[in-house]
Amino acid sequence: MAASLLTRIAHAANPHSLERHTWKDQDLEQAVIAHLSRMLNTRQGSSLTCPDYGLIEVSEMLHDFPDAIGIVQRAIKNSIQQYEPRLKNVQVRHIKNEVLGTMYLEFEITGQLHYPDGRRSGLRFSTSVDGSGNVKIG
Asked: Which of 11, 76, 114, 134 is most buried, most CB within 10 Å of its CB?
């Protein structure tokens, strides 16, 4: 699996694009990160055809601090393992928040990105979940 079908169609439809038929490694990385951002900002139950797609309602979990850390961490990992097949050996690690009184959790996500030609490469990025359940990947 490379970039999404809609992304490939958009590139192919642009006659002035220099990258019309060429995909680079960073395109796959960006496609995976974009998908994760959409998926983790979707609440389970939002998809009629796939009710477990997305993340649990995090805003309700954050009030069960510190138990919420492990629950959210496992939910992120399980969602990625189930719905992002291009990323293997996924690890989600909680990053301790040093700022008191803030209602957000930070995680580091690592995994192996599998390219269509069989190559693999490490991928690492951070993500934060705020008190409303919004997930930011950056």
From this structure: 76
Strand ranges in 6-119 using DSSP code E only, listed in sequence order: 87-95, 104-114
Give per-residue pLDDT as tens, 9-60: 776 666 666 655 455 667 889 999 999 999 999 998 888 899 999 988 877 7
Order the strands of the 87-95 sheet from edge to edge. 87-95, 104-114, 120-130, 135-137
Radius of gyration of the chain (CA): 17
pTM equals 0.78
Question: CA–CA separation, 127 vs 74, rounded Å?
Answer: 14
* Topology classification of domain 24-137: Nuclear Transport Factor 2; Chain: A, (3.10.450)
